[in-house]
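If you are new to this repository, start here. Below is one unmodified record pulled from the training split, so you can see the exact layout before writing a loader.
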Amino acid sequence: MKTAKAPLRDDAAKRKIYAAVLQRILKGELKPGVRLVESQLAEQYAVSRTIIREVLFTLLRDNLVERNHNRGTQVVSFTPDCVEDLYEIRKSLELLALRTAITVMPLEPLFAFEQRFRELEKEPVQVAAPQHVEIDLAFHAFVFEHCRNKRLVAYLENVSQLIHSLRLLGYELEDVVRETGAQHLALVQAFIRRDLPAAERLLSEHIDWSKRNALRMLILRRDGGHRRGIALVP
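And here is the target side for that same chain:
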């Protein structure tokens, strides 16, 4: 039983470390050209070098670092243009997933999502924000799960960690939390009605909204600006 749980713990550690390193890149704490050393990161996060090696591979895959034989693994520039490109990819893939999933998504989980979004509307923002992060991830994963295209799901999973870390940036803005919850509620209601045109329009607008908030927060952080926000744990 213990051995069965070990891979799950390793996966959770990898996701947490990836998110932590990415947040430091997005904040500008890890600037382009900074070396990421396996042994130092393993000591810092109290994990094996094997886990760190896999995290670095994921960062490399997402074009957040580069490897050089002489200089090792180095951070590369992550600009607003990178965010723009990533969200265009996200929109294309998620809209494609939606078109194949909307007629087969079971209603019971959709009604459960609807109820949860309504409940969060009544919660104080500080309480609701971390819960919105969790349900946001589950909601989009639910759509992917029912798109019936394994290759598409694989492509979505490849960008999911990076997208989720950018999503966290937007959720640090208090004015975003309520609006994002309202958008999710409208989306799930369109899914329940099996209204594809409305769902496509709402999802496209939602992803554009998420992109604007990620860009706003990225630029704010890079400029060293400060704004009242919400502390979120990736």
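Two things worth knowing about this chain: The longest helix spans residues 196-222. The radius of gyration is 19 Å.
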